[in-house]
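ingest -> validate -> predict -> emit
validate: passed (alphabet ok, no gaps, 49 aa)
predict: started
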Amino acid sequence: MYRTKRLILEAYDAMAAAIATDQEYRSPFEAMPTCPRNVISRRYRWQHE
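emit:
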């Protein structure tokens, strides 16, 4: 089995188990990094609209 497929199926099984036991699901995957300038500019626009 491909590694990507295995990771996705494991995450899906963990989500299903969290739903069945009424617990919070925490993703094992890291969020993609973003450019700090984009975060700052979005935050600035949101606060100054």
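Residues 6 and 14 are 12 Å apart (CA to CA).
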